[in-house]
Design a protein that fits this description.
137 residues; OsmC/Ohr_fam; alpha+beta; 6 strands; GMP Synthetase, Chain A, domain 3; KH_dom-like_a/b; 27% strand; N-terminal domain of TfIIb
């Protein structure tokens, strides 16, 4: 495997903390969302994960669609990341990826969405670790 890029981000303070990237592009205060006893208006790990996964996933969608000469430049991936309580002291994530390709039949969108899910690095990283649903919309 050839390493193409490495992102470096330092986190301090956990969910009530701060993250900073080595290149200075990211410099964010983090807070738990209001639904978890925190406050709205701040980034949280689930938002960041959803944004990163969605962006990466659309890259994979473009790769698989290109093989069939299908334009997915206007496609969207709405990523839902849920923070779930398993027991009193354990938690787990779950995800839904809602994929929309304008002008595409739902069955074709689902086919491409599933293929992209097989190749996306974030999808690969979570495979077998969390519950994930890929849904054409």
């Amino acid at each position: 495997m050839k390493k193409l890029y490495t992102a470096v981000v330092t986190a301090k303070g956990g969910r009530e903390g701060h993250i900073t990237s080595a290149d200075g592009i990211i410099d964010l205060e983090l807070r738990k969302p209001a639904a978890m006893g925190g406050e709205d208006g701040y980034a949280n790990p689930e938002l960041l994960f959803a944004g990163a996964w969605g962006s990466c996933y659309l890259g994979a969608l473009g790769s698989v669609a290109k093989k069939d000469n299908i334009d997915v430049s206007e496609a969207t991936a709405q990523v839902h990341i849920s923070f779930n309580q398993e027991s009193e002291t354990t938690y787990a994530l779950s995800a839904e990826l809602h994929v929309h390709i304008p002008g595409s039949e739902l069955s074709e969108t689902q086919r491409l969405a599933d293929l992209a899910h097989k190749g996306c690095p974030y999808s690969k990283a979570t495979r077998g670790n969390i519950e994930v649903k890929v849904i054409a919309v």
